[in-house]
Amino acid sequence: MTQTTDKDRVWIFDTTLRDGEQSPGATMTHDEKLEIAGLLDDMGVDIIEAGFPIASEGDFKAVSDIAKNARNSVICGLARANLTDIDRCWEAIQHAGRPRIHTFIGTSPLHRAIPNLTMDEMADRIHETVTHARNLCDNVQWSPMDATRTEWDYLCRVVEIAIKAGASTINIPDTVGYTAPVESAELIRRLIAEVPGAEDVIFATHCHNDLGMATANSLAAVAGGARQIECTINGLGERAGNTALEEVVMALKVRHDIMPWRTGVDTTKIMNISRRVATVSGFPVQFNKAIVGKNAFAHESGIHQDGMLKNPENFEIMRPSDVGLSDTNLVMGKHSGRAALRAKLSDLGFELGDNQLKDVFVRFKELADRKKEVYDDDLVALMRVGEDPE
Ligand code: KIV
Ligand code: ZN
């Protein structure tokens, strides 16, 4: 199946090892990068952006080793719009079963001023570099960086040039997280409708999260016709990060009724890779982060715990097992009620009659007022008469 033949399929392009690693302080070692690439490949990520080979010897070696070890995923390397970068990128990825060169240049007025190129000079540069990349590799992705702040006519012009020069994926980055979802959908829809040759390539969306809209913008872009989402595990990335892989993948799964597109990701592997990326990058996941936060499947309030015990669908729209967790976490604290305490004690091997539960519940509440969370060991101690669990 080629990328353009299955219209319901959304390709997942993970850039944890490139854009994710660019977050200040998130540097990973060579072995850690290889491990994460292996996990991404295993979970069914379609394209892994393994790094920026020209950036350093270490990056080159990591991309090259990831390329040699890849099993199913396409392995992509990043290159700026110059021949040296592109050659170095090809050198690193050429041994992959399925290599891809990703080359980019900033096309907005602000970004055009950096290399100090006129619009025409930049257009020529795009033609030259995409053609060069295509002569090396038959899978080329091109990105107009800061596309969402690029003049409409110029954006159409350069996208058309890249397509004619042989790019098979056109990525439209919202580099500074500036776009809103309605604009994101409309931008892709219009590009596909108005740029000659657009129907023969895949449009990708690459969103940053500066205004907290990266996931919404990515899904809106898919509604507009994009068929590749660029994302990172835990939303790791520059500044406020990139679109979180776990969010777009689970949103497409859980709300398939209104977003009828599929990914190839095995969602049961999400939690494990999320934890590994948090550990190796040194970026902990916020407790209330969607899908992978410690509290994403945790319930403390009595009403919620009682509802969960009666039917998990009362307060959960996906099963913990869908993302690789063994179970819902009923957190015992001062908001918990009798039903949860009885269930928790039963799990720990204590079957209580009503009177006994009443008595233990009073002592449990006294303890919960003193502690943020009451752990299983605390409850076991509570069941031992006369023992102070603290
Ligand atoms: O955010 C961005 O524009 C990028 C490009 C290199 C695709 O990461
Ligand atoms: Zn980016």
Automatic annotation (TrEMBL):
Pathway: Amino-acid biosynthesis; L-leucine biosynthesis; L-leucine from 3-methyl-2-oxobutanoate: step 1/4. It is an enzyme of class 2 (transferase). One of its GO terms (cellular component) is cytosol. GO terms for biological process: L-leucine biosynthetic process. Keywords: Amino-acid biosynthesis, Branched-chain amino acid biosynthesis, Cytoplasm, Leucine biosynthesis, Manganese, Metal-binding, Transferase. Its EC number is 2.3.3.13. Mn(2+) binds at residues 19, 206, 208, 242. It comes from the Bacteria. Residues 10-271 form the Pyruvate carboxyltransferase domain. One of its GO terms (molecular function) is manganese ion binding. It catalyses: 3-methyl-2-oxobutanoate + acetyl-CoA + H2O = (2S)-2-isopropylmalate + CoA + H(+). Its cofactor is Mn(2+). Catalyzes the condensation of the acetyl group of acetyl-CoA with 3-methyl-2-oxobutanoate (2-ketoisovalerate) to form 3-carboxy-3-hydroxy-4-methylpentanoate (2-isopropylmalate). Belongs to the alpha-IPM synthase/homocitrate synthase family. LeuA type 1 subfamily. Homodimer. This is 2-isopropylmalate synthase. It comes from Sedimentitalea nanhaiensis.
